[in-house]
Specification:
There is one protein chain. The chain has 411 residues and is of the alpha/beta class. It has 2 domains: 242 residues, 3-Layer(aba) Sandwich (Peroxisomal Thiolase, Chain A, domain 1); 150 residues, Peroxisomal Thiolase, Chain A, domain 1, CATH 3.40.47. Helix content is 33%, strand content 22%. The protein contains 14 helices and 16 strands. It has an 11-stranded mixed beta sheet with strand order 5-4-6-8-1-9-16-15-10-11-13, with helices on both faces. The chain has a 3-stranded mixed beta sheet with strand order 2-3-7. A two-stranded antiparallel ribbon has the order 12-14. Strand 2 and strand 3 form a beta hairpin. Helix 3 crosses helix 6, helix 7 packs across helix 13 and helix 10 packs across helix 11. The longest helix is centred in the first third of the chain and has 17 residues. The protein is globular. The two termini are 22 Å apart.
Length: 411
């Protein structure tokens, strides 16, 4: 089994409440959400997490026009991560760089828009765009990054539903350990809010959040939670083998200590807490750690009634006896960014290695007794004596589960 240590050396992100890690972290600690109302085709007003990054910072207008929103998010995050990593990009062997981007629903946005466009011309397909195919192929976001940064190494999308952000990181780690690449981008992107279909589908399942104040609509663990707030966003990490990072004198942000992926094999939508617990236990085992070694567990909880309860059941089984482990949730701030969720939520917690703060879960006015698990941080940040290890859960439809263990780097 490959044993090379893998470290994070750069972070690039855009979230509904921040376009840099510094802004994002500050807003998590200050309880700033920025979920807002938008108008979407056929649905009217919905709550959504909207990112405010400038796509023209790293792209020409023509590239933005012929590409995709997911591609622009990925390009922004990749470029921000390169800058954050401090690497001499011109000196990097581009054929030794890998791009592994988790996605969920990519392609729906473009297809919906194109069908609507030709509906204005009696569905005459002569008006169908010739950009459709490269926009909708599954590898699009990763491929757009390679074109933007002239990367000639391998690239592909990781289709792992809402576990895709974690899965992108895991794939990058594995490819580095196998020696297939020397420098990797791993994480996830989401363009979800630009498709009416995702809102309509959640609404038909009675799983779309509604609240008079959009900033309070995403409320995991609260008795009055009524569904998901759909968000866009992205986060990509630059990952390297430890020896390579040290050779170039990189500042090391954190180390990937362990991970696990498994499947429920039970239902299309409803999660299986037994399989989730097995995934968490496997990640701890790979990291050679026990629950008491973990200071922060970031939950996947999406504000759906049953999903929150079942994850809390799984977390209670693994971490319920650990007084040193604190539980939080990032979706209460930014909503559910689908394929980007795991990576964005991990990024929001990583600064805790320095500031020792556990950001809170917000919008919990009345805690569901069935979600009362461990040291659940609600309302206000909690300062710890130390933060050495962070555990990140991310689960998805069709029963895919992922867990990551990330540690403060110690040489």
């Amino acid at each position: 089994m490959p044993t090379q240590r893998i470290v994070i050396t750069g972070i690039g992100l855009t979230a509904p409440n921040g376009d840099s890690l510094e802004e994002y972290r500050s807003n998590l600690l200050s309880k700033v959400s920025r979920i807002q109302n938008i108008e979407t085709r056929y649905m009217g007003t919905v709550h959504a997490g909207v990112c405010n990054f400038d796509p023209l910072k790293y792209q020409k207008k023509k590239a933005v026009r012929i590409g995709t929103r997911a591609g622009s998010i990925g390009i922004y995050c990749a470029n921000e991560a390169i800058a954050n990593s401090g690497i001499d990009w011109e000196a990097v062997e581009k054929d030794r760089v890998g791009v592994y981007v988790g996605t969920t629903e990519h392609g729906n946005v473009e297809t919906e828009n194109e069908i609507y466009n030709i509906s204005q011309y009696e569905y005459d397909t002569r008006f169908w765009t010739h950009h459709h195919n490269p926009r909708t192929v599954a590898n699009n976001p990763a491929g757009e990054i390679t074109i933007n940064r002239n990367i000639t190494g391998p690239h592909y999308a990781i289709g792992a539903a809402c576990a895709a952000g974690n899965a992108g990181v895991i794939q990058a780690c594995q490819m580095l350990q196998l020696g297939e690449v020397d420098f990797a981008f791993g994480g996830g992107v989401s363009e979800s809010i630009h498709t009416f279909g995702i809102f309509a589908a959640f609404d038909s399942q009675n799983a779309l959040a509604r609240h008079e104040d959009p900033a309070k609509a995403s409320r995991p663990f609260d008795m009055e939670r009524n569904g998901i707030v759909v968000s866009e966003g992205g986060c990509l990490f630059t990952l390297e083998r430890l020896e390579d990072a040290q050779t170039r004198g990189a500042e090391i942000i954190a180390e990937i200590a362990g991970w696990a992926l498994n499947s429920d094999a039970t239902d299309y939508v409803l999660p299986n807490p037994e399989r989730q617990a097995q995934c968490m236990q496997a990640a701890l085992k790979r990291a050679n750690m026990v629950p008491e070694d973990i200071q922060i567990v970031n939950t996947h909880a999406t504000s759906t009634k049953q999903g929150d309860i079942q994850e809390c059941e799984a977390i209670g089984e693994i971490f319920g006896k650990s007084d040193s482990t604190y539980i939080n949730n990032t979706k209460s701030f930014i909503g559910h960014s689908m394929g980007a969720a795991g990576a964005l939520e991990l990024a929001g917690n990583l600064p805790a290695f320095r500031d020792k703060m556990v950001h809170p879960t917000i919008n919990v006015d009345e805690l569901d007794p069935q979600c009362n698990v461990g040291n659940l941080v609600i309302g206000e940040p909690v300062e710890l004596d130390r933060v050495d290890a962070i555990f990140n859960n991310s689960f998805g439809m069709l029963g895919i589960n992922s867990s990551l263990v990330v540690t403060r780097f110690q040489d």
